[in-house]
Amino acid sequence: MYRNYCRINVVTFLMTLLFLASNGFAEEPSAAADRLTLQEAVEIALSHHPTLMAARGALQVQQALVGEARSNYFPQLNLQGNYTRATANTAPSVQSSQALSQTGQTLNQALTTAPSNTSFNNYAATLNLQQRIFDFGKTVADVESARETMQSSGLSEMDFRQTVAVNVKVAYFGLLQARRLVQVQEETVRQNKEHLDQTRGFFQAGTRTRYDVTTAEVNLTNAQLNLINAQNAETVARVTLANAMGVPDRPIGELEDLLSFQKFEISEDQAIQEALANRPDLLSLTAQRRAADATIRSARRSYFPVLSGIADYTWRGQDYPLVWNWDVGLSLTFPLFSGYLTQSQVAAAESNRIVADANEEVLRQNVILQVHQVFANLKDAGERVQTSEIVVRQAEENLDLANGRFQAGVGTTVEQTDAQVLLTNAKTSQVQALYDYRVAEAQLQKAMGRKD
Fold first, then answer.
1. Cα-flanking dihedrals φ and ψ of residue 198, to 5°?
2. CA-to-CA distance for 317 and 319, rounded, in angstroms?
3. How many CA atoms lie within 13 A of 222 on its CB side?
4. Dmax of the chain from CA atoms?
5. Cβ of 167: how many Cβ atoms within 10 Å?
6. What is the pLDDT of residue 1?
7. How much is the pLDDT for 114?
8. What are phi and psi for residue 113, nearest 5 degrees?
């Protein structure tokens, strides 16, 4: 019995090991699973962001409206049934005096004959088929207008995609910037701690005053406060990235380090030409203008008649079985007067065309302005990146000299403090310039209409 018990425990142990091996110890996520690349962040946003879900819904509405406009190409089949119960009284006819004398009735008796109170059941069912044959191109114009509007919605959805993507990129770079600044402040705290330890040692040796120790302590405290602020900014940037991705509860782990400088090669004129040719929001307004043209044609076609084919098959009677009949024919509907409805519809369509033209021109000018502004920001940030690299090297050399002078006893605490502040500011400016450049690059690509 003991042997069987041991055998059971061994089997259970082996099965447990196999289960853990097959699941890969999934309860402990690997470091690679926590790493989030920029492309992954963009793909998550394009799949989950509610703005895009709303844009896709609007596109589906326009697709349905195209089907609604095309419905006039197809026959319309309707089945109608009704039941009534009614009397069939008729007004008495006035007979000639000779007929009245023959029946022995007077004229007054004939006019006052009481109607019958008998009622009857009436059953009816009609199967109606209608097919529009010719309407002078009104249906064609309606379908074209709906299609252009659908294309406009599709381009708007693409513009929303690009906006979501660039927002994710900006937030991604913002989190990288915040983490870089945390590293800068951590390095500043470390250097201030080292300086405080040195100053205390010199004070105990009698080569430095209490003022130097107090100054070093104050500098360390300020550096720690700046570190707290940087860590708080990193927390906000992390939440901002998750929100830009459309998944606010998603944890953000390690990021792809993209805060590096690589010059974006394109001329300003090329950027403007590409923007005017590819911007989805501008192309969307162009489609809206074409839709307005088609709407004008459709409204004007309402002045003309509509020729349709009709066919009916009916069952009718006062009792079952009902009597059937059929008819086939043509129907020509000519609008004579609609209370100025058609005239108002044409005027509204023409006014919408004017609005579409104006909106397209306004956006075209704004696109050119936006490219100019973003291109200038990109150029400015690139120059600041290159300059900040020189400033950081100079500030590091200056701090090394200040530390050497302080350790040799010829430098002051003020010199060392100033050198440390200059280095911290230089590194902060360098991180800011790198962030500004990557953001300007992403915004320029968005302004040019490039896909994510």
1. -65, -45
2. 6
3. 12
4. 156
5. 21
6. 41
7. 57
8. -65, 130
E strands along 212-322, which residues? 306-317
Flag whether pLDDT at 15 surpasses 50: no
Query: Coil, strand or helix: which one is 326?
Result: strand
247, 44 Cβ separation under 8 angstroms: yes
Backbone angles phi, psi at 130, to 5 degrees: -130, 140
User: Which helix H or strand E contains 76, and what residues bound it?
Assistant: strand 76-87
Task: Say how many C-beta atoms besides its own lie within 10 A of residue 34's C-beta.
Answer: 12
Asked if residue 350 lies in contact with residue 296, where contact means CB atoms within 8 angstroms, the answer is yes
322-375 pLDDT tens trace: 999 999 999 999 999 889 999 999 999 999 999 999 999 999 999 999 999 999
N- to C-terminal Cα separation, the chain: 68
CB-CB contact of 65 with 164 (8 Å): no
Quick: pLDDT tens for 119-144.
889 999 999 999 999 999 999 999 99
How confident is the model over 248-306, as pLDDT tens digits? Answer: 988 999 999 999 888 999 999 999 999 999 999 999 999 999 999 999 999 999 999 99
Residue 394 in contact with residue 419, Cβ under 8 Å? Answer: no
DSSP 83-140: EEEEE---PPP---HHHHHHHT--HHHHHTPPPP--EEEEEEEEEEEEEEEE-TTHHH
Whether the model pTM is above 0.85? no
124 DSSP β-pair partners: 82, 316
The beta strand positions in 116-239, using DSSP E, are 119-134
User: SS3 of 282, please?
Assistant: helix
Q: In whole angstroms, what is the distance from residue 393 CA to residue 390 CA?
A: 5
| DSSP code per residue over 411-445 | S-HHHHHHHHHHHHHHHHHHHHHHHHHHHHHHHHH
Smallest CA-to-CA distance from 159 within 361, 363, 436 is with 363
> Encoding tokens for residue 22?
């097959």
**What's the full length of the chain, in residues?**
452
Contact of 52 with 165, CB cutoff 8 Å: no
Pairing of strands 306-317, 119-134: antiparallel
Thinking of the domain 33-73+137-302+340-447, which architecture would CATH place it in? Up-down Bundle (1.20)
